[in-house]
Amino acid sequence: MTTPESAHAGDEAQLRQLIADQLSAIGAKDLDRLMTHYAAEVVVFDVKPPFQTTGADAWRRTWAACLPYVPDACQTESRDLRLTGSGDVAVAHWRWRLTGMAKDHPAMQTWMRSTAGDRRSRGRWPSVHEHASVPFDPQTAQAAFTPEPQSYT
Amino acid sequence: MTTPESAHAGDEAQLRQLIADQLSAIGAKDLDRLMTHYAAEVVVFDVKPPFQTTGADAWRRTWAACLPYVPDACQTESRDLRLTGSGDVAVAHWRWRLTGMAKDHPAMQTWMRSTAGDRRSRGRWPSVHEHASVPFDPQTAQAAFTPEPQSYT
Questions:
Q1: Which chain A residues are closer than 8 Å to B2 by Cβ?
Q2: Does A117 sit within 8 Å of B115, measured CB to CB?
Q3: pLDDT digit string (tens) for B45-91?
């Protein structure tokens, strides 16, 4: 974690563990565990419509409708987590996908990109903002699914 | 701005001004001014491919290729900016679009969603991360363009 002032190595370890647990909860389809990672006032920009979801209650309803479509015995894989923090706020971003499902399963067979804005509260770091997406090709307006997460440098 | 500890009202005013200037630079097609808003190590998840762009040099090349497609005499409109900060790190998210172009102009006629992770450096707040996207419809894989930014609460 980039720690300009007051963040600690222990904060980075805790944040990494929390993000791993959040991904694990998706694979386990454990709605209650998943929702422990969000603040009541969270604002989400999700992969799919609507454009914005405001508040943990609305976000919980979204996940409740979505989790049945996650394959059973599914797992998640993530890469390239980067954290930047100071004091009680951290920004995290990573790439992730569902794994362990049949190649023709209709669940999303693509890498996705996630960003979280976390604020420390009572010893945890609930997300006050999350932004998840897949890029799209402006020529066709099609989502640019990718089996491998290409990068420009 | 949500200020759990050490951020100041002056920080919020400065961050709002910087984001307004960043949007203004897009409308003005001013590449040099736009790039003052990014840290050298920025990692970008852009609206269009690639999946990830790493470093200000690569990101500058992306904007240099993109700005010619922004309509002349174009402006930008933003809504719902929210800031969360502590110490030297802030997370900002907002919705925005290009305005002032003909209704049939081929530039993207949609609202977009942006998230920035900013870290204070030498009195400014360059972005170490930016994530911009449009949601997509998983049934069709089409980008879900929207003339109005609908929200679920």
A1: 119, 128
A2: yes
A3: 999 999 999 999 999 999 999 999 888 888 899 999 999 999 999 99
B7: Cβ contacts below 8 Å, ≥ 6 apart:
B1, B85, B86, B87, B90
What pLDDT score does B104 carry?
76
The minimum CA-CA distance between B110 and chain A, rounded to whole Å, is: 11
Instruction: Confirm whether B73 is domain-assigned.
Output: yes
Per-residue pLDDT tens for A79-124? 999 999 999 999 999 999 998 887 777 777 789 999 999 999 999 9
Establish if A133 belongs to a structural domain. yes
CA distances from A40 to A24, A90, A121 (A): 21, 17, 11
CA-nearest of B60, B68, B77 to B24 is B77
Q: What ipTM is given for this predicted complex?
A: 0.91
| CB < 8 Å to B93, chain A | 43, 45, 117, 129, 131
Which residues partner with B69 through β-bridges? none
- Among candidates A81, A129, A11, which has minimal Cα distance to B114? A129
Which of A4, A89, A115 minimises the CB distance to B131? A115
> Could A129 and B91 be called an inter-chain contact, meaning their C-beta atoms sit closer than 8 Å?
yes
Number of domains in chain A: 1
- Confirm whether B151 is domain-assigned: no
Q: Tell me, yes or no, if A65 comes closer than 8 A to chain B by beta carbon.
A: no
Q: Which of B51, B88, B141 sits opposite A5 (nearest CB)?
A: B88
Mean pLDDT of B19-26: 96
Q: What global pTM score does this model have?
A: 0.92
**Does residue B35 fall inside a structural domain?**
yes
Is the CB of residue B54 less than 8 Å away from at least one CB of chain A?
Answer: yes
CATH number at residue B77: 3.10.450.50
Is residue B149 within 8 angstroms of chain A, CB to CB?
A: yes
Q: Are B107 and A152 in contact (CB under 8 A)?
A: no
